[in-house]
Design a protein that fits this description.
It is built from six helices and 16 strands.
Length: 347
């Protein structure tokens, strides 16, 4: 029976990141991933952005934006083959909720929180350049703000972080489904099933980084203090057959939410939505309502592209702490829940 300092359930971006950090500190690490490779679930269904969260400033989530911008700068520096800058356009119309002064203030704050890096400055597009904006609707257009953020291939980034963890000594077991954990005096006995064979491992610490499956897997850990299920919020994206050179930050006409339209694999990526999902969900997929919502946004801003078709779609679940109010105002901060503050053994 193998012994480890840390066993991690899930090789999404959070599990891979924990594995990399723990292995870098010299801990013996085992990662259990139910799929045949890391980054195939939630970590492959994001908006493909490494951004500071410009829209989070509206909710005054300033520490989150600051931290995210610092991480963006770090990734641009150490992983330029995976994270690259992208120009974003924010069109402002006569009926846009967020007015010019609001955007000036928000983008100025964004630049300040990034430390006034060379990637942080913004401008307003010259009038003579409006016809270069990918067939954007110019009717009622007052101005267009342009700023930079970063784009990535989320699944490739996750796999790169996991590969780094393995190079540092972490052990990855794929097609390995967590079965149960039994507490001992100073350790936990982990049971998992791999290709029909049940295996065991001993660990001092268990990290449940299973994303949307965190809560049901918690129920399989012996004598774990009761916890509240998280809020599961689905985000759907559509891949369109419209090639793009630039990205757009759009205000949905239906509810004034932020929706992105990004260049993606010789087409474009349109998203995202915010749909509450029950804790006992059985599948993750875009709904008819989400498709209609996103295509309404697209045709509102690009009415001349009537023949654009949906080439593919993806959906993933955000795992958020339960809060009150509108979903788009929920905090995106990571929540870490140890079984004991003094001596955590299950996280």
């Amino acid at each position: 029976m193998s012994e480890f300092d840390v066993v991690i359930i899930g090789a999404g971006i959070n599990g891979a990141g924990v594995a990399q950090a723990a292995a870098a500190q010299g801990y013996r690490v085992l990662v259990l991933e139910k799929n045949h490779q890391p980054g195939l679930e939630t970590s492959s269904a994001s908006s493909k952005l490494i951004h500071g969260g410009l829209r989070y400033l509206e909710g005054l989530q300033i520490p989150l934006v600051y931290e995210s911008l610092q991480e963006r700068e770090l990734l641009l520096k150490i992983a330029p083959e995976l994270v690259r800058l992208q120009t974003f356009n924010i069109p402002i119309y006569k009926n846009t909720k967020r007015k010019q002064l609001t955007l000036h203030a928000g983008l100025s704050m964004y630049a300040l929180l990034s430390g006034l890096s060379r990637h942080s400055f913004y401008r307003q597009a010259a009038f003579q350049d409006w016809d270069k904006l990918e067939d954007l609707n110019l009717d009622g257009l007052k101005t267009v703000f342009q700023y930079q953020d970063a784009q990535t291939d989320d699944s490739a980034l996750t796999q790169a972080v996991m590969a780094s963890a393995q190079q540092l000594g972490a052990q990855l077991e794929t097609e390995a489904c967590f079965v149960a954990a039994k507490r001992g005096t100073a350790t936990l006995e982990i049971r998992y099933r791999q290709q029909g064979v049940e295996k065991t491992a001993i660990t001092r610490t268990l990290v449940n980084a299973a994303g949307p499956w965190v809560y049901p897997l918690d129920q399989q850990i012996e004598n774990l203090p009761a916890s509240e299920p998280p809020e599961l919020v689905q985000g759907a994206h559509l891949v369109l057959d419209k090639p793009l050179r630039q990205a757009f930050y759009l205000e949905a006409p239906q509810d004034k939410r932020a929706v992105f339209l990004l260049p993606w694999k010789k087409g474009s990526l349109l998203g995202t939505t915010e749909t509450s999902i029950p804790a006992d969900f059985t599948q993750i997929c875009a709904t008819d309502q989400e498709r209609e919502y996103l295509m309404t946004v697209f045709h509102h801003f690009f009415p001349y592209d009537e023949k654009v078709k949906i080439r593919d779609e993806m959906a993933g679940l955000r795992v958020l702490a339960r809060q009150s109010g509108r979903l788009n105002r929920f905090s995106r901060e990571v929540v870490i829940q140890p079984d004991s503050r003094q001596k955590p053994r299950v996280i």
